[in-house]
Amino acid sequence: MKVVLFENQLPNKDMLLERLVNDPSEWVQMRVAEHGYGLEQLKDSPSALVRGMVAAQGYQPEVFVNDPDEEVAVARPILAELEWERAHEVTLSTEDLEDLSNVETYTLN
């Protein structure tokens, strides 16, 4: 039997993504979050593993920083890094770059 699908018969990408985000399996939801999809919906998951994966993507670490589950603790260093970056604006001047031209480089074989 041969099945022919036309483009207008294929499910839309958003519909498929919605099904994956709402899949009852926490493993499916973790994989969705791992690829950066559905983070807004998955951040409220009852599964600490799913929330941990959302936090690992750097999504709203301030939401996860006080989460009691260790799987979600990954948000703590991410949030600390973001706070440090906000407090310390780092810019390089042309003089900084000139200093780099004096650095010797070595190639390991």
Characterization of this structure:
It contains 7 helices and no strands. It is mostly helical and 109 residues long. Mean pLDDT is 78; it is low at 1-6. Helix 2 packs parallel to helix 4 (48-56). The chain has helices at 13-21, 26-34, 39-42, 48-56, 61-64, 75-87, 94-100.
So how many helices?
A: 7
Q: Which spans have pLDDT < 50 for at least 5 consecutive residues? A: 1-6
Class from secondary-structure proportions: mainly alpha
Number of strands: 0
Summarize the helix and strand pattern as letters.
Answer: HHHHHHH
Report the average pLDDT across residues: 78
Largest sheet: none
* Head-to-tail CA distance between termini: 58 Å
Fraction in helix = 40-55%
- Beta-strand percent range: under 5%
Shape: elongated
Radius of gyration: 22 Å
Please give the structural blueprint.
Blueprint: H1 13-21, H2 26-34, H3 39-42, H4 48-56, H5 61-64, H6 75-87, H7 94-100
Helix pairs in contact: 2-4
Summarize the structure.
The chain is mainly alpha-helical. The chain is built from 7 helices and no strands. Helix content is about 50%, strand content about 0%.
